[in-house]
Amino acid sequence: MSTSSPDSAPGTGLAHEEALRAGPPHAAPPPAPARGRRPLAVGVTGVVLAAVAGFAARGLWQGGTHPPVAAAVTAATALVVRTDLSARQLVAGTLGYQGFFTVASESGGGIITWLPAAGDIVRRGQPLFAVDGQPVTLLYGSLPAWRPFVPGMTAGPDVRQLQRNLAALGFDPGPADGVFGWGTELAVQRWQQSRDETVTGTIPLGAVAFLPGPLRVTATPEQPGAPVAAGASVVSGTSLTAGVQVWLPVGGPAVRRGDQVTVTMPDGTTTVAGTVTAVGSVATVPGASGGQASGSGQGGSANSSGSQAAEIPVTITISAAIPAGLDQAPVQVSITQRRADGVLAVPVTALLAAPGGGYEIQVAGSRDRLIPVTTGLFDDATGLVAVTGSGLAPGLAVTVAQG
């Protein structure tokens, strides 16, 4: 988009100005000629930015007793800076806690005698629930308990998990070598004694449950007093790690594990840093069986046929805690798509449309010094645009439009 040259417009030449100055004393002066360039709407990376009209009217009325016509906007100055710019894309997400875990009864069945309440936090060494008065204790580990722990059992990683937990609880079994020897048996006995349990030195299957970390209880399908069969789910919950679940359309914004993002919290103003911790490898329909990350809300978009389109699930970890009552609240996630590091940049309102197309900037304090520039990446978060041009340098003061 371009404007015609100011000197080529009718009535704007120097001869015309002299004629106006010599005109009849009672003649009303014509409007001030607009000899300068006017900023235009600048589109960079799909973002249309409207510069205010009338900013660069450099040739004001020179003669007569009448004051010049007031400009539509005022001008200010800004400095050319060398900085890093980013182009971002906003996507919708759902605030929540990461992970979803279900704890089942691995004993022979019985009556549920105690359950935690929704919202309770269960940590290592604490009971998850109780069946027939016997607590099922939470221990940390990635492997589920699949056999009883007894002296002489085959060495394995599950025994190593147990040994590490005993040590963390203050009952050191010796080296975590995966062998259930006398040191591990003694540690189990001391642990049982501290809990006022029958001291056996063994742990039957179903007495402990391994999870990666603390459990934030979200649901208990049954109530105390209800019968429970072996293998039936008793307690479910999430981790304590706050995060955001995002569903990205296939071919949409590209993210990788470890990418940094910015999350705008539900209040619309608070922002927190986030890190992409998981990116799905298969596009699924949000909410479909196996396609919804537990503990997160449903997202997704409809395709042309009205059915929900398959999308890529993305999990983001955030450093801030989730305020009370905002679990599953909607948030906005800003994903960086392009970067330009160490570039010269000016406010986008410093751009003027050049007569032959393209853009230029005006050096502050010098109405006639214009520098043609080539624009690059636009950063919508800072309002800066990358520019290159002869004579540009960090610290150079340029004129910008302001409302």
Structural class, by secondary structure, is: mainly beta
Say how many strands there are: 23
Task: Report the radius of gyration as a whole number of Å.
Answer: 35 Å
Q: Could you give a short account of the major beta sheet?
A: 6 strands, antiparallel, barrel
Number of self-contained structural domains = 3
Give the CA-based shape: elongated
Fraction of residues in helix:
under 10%
Number of helices: 3
Please identify the top-level CATH class of the largest domain: Mainly Beta
Which architecture of the largest domain does the CATH hierarchy give at level 2? Beta Barrel
Distance between the termini: 22 Å
Task: Give the integer mean of the pLDDT values.
Answer: 81
| CATH topology grouping of the largest domain | conserved putative lor/sdh protein from methanococcus maripaludis s2 fold
| Strand content range | 35-45%
Strand arrangement across the biggest beta sheet: 4-14-17-16-15-18
Key descriptive features of the protein:
403 residues, mainly beta, conserved putative lor/sdh protein from methanococcus maripaludis s2 fold, Muramoyl-pentapeptide Carboxypeptidase, domain 1, 6-stranded antiparallel beta barrel, 5-stranded mixed β-sheet, 3 helices, 23 strands, 8% helix, disordered N terminus
Structure explained in plain terms:
With 403 residues, the protein is mainly β. It has three domains: 6-88 and 339-402, conserved putative lor/sdh protein from methanococcus maripaludis s2 fold, CATH 2.40.420; 92-98 and 241-329, no CATH class; 101-238, PGBD-like superfamily/PGBD (Muramoyl-pentapeptide Carboxypeptidase, domain 1, Orthogonal Bundle), CATH 1.10.101.10. It is built from three helices and 23 strands. The protein has helices at 14-21, 157-168, 182-194, and strands spanning 42-44, 47-49, 74-79, 81-97, 101-104, 110-114, 121-122, 127-131, 134-140, 208-211, 215-219, 227-228, 233-238, 242-249, 260-264, 271-279, 311-318, 330-347, 352-353, 359-362, 370-379, 384-388, 397-402. The strands form five sheets. It has a six-stranded antiparallel barrel with strand order 4-14-17-16-15-18. A five-stranded mixed β-sheet has the order 10-9-8-6-12. Strands 5-13-11-7 form a four-stranded antiparallel β-sheet, with no helix packed on it. A hairpin with a 2-residue loop joins β1 (42-44) and β2 (47-49). The longest helix has 13 residues, at 182-194. The two termini are 22 Å apart. Residues 1-71 and 289-301 have low confidence and may be disordered.
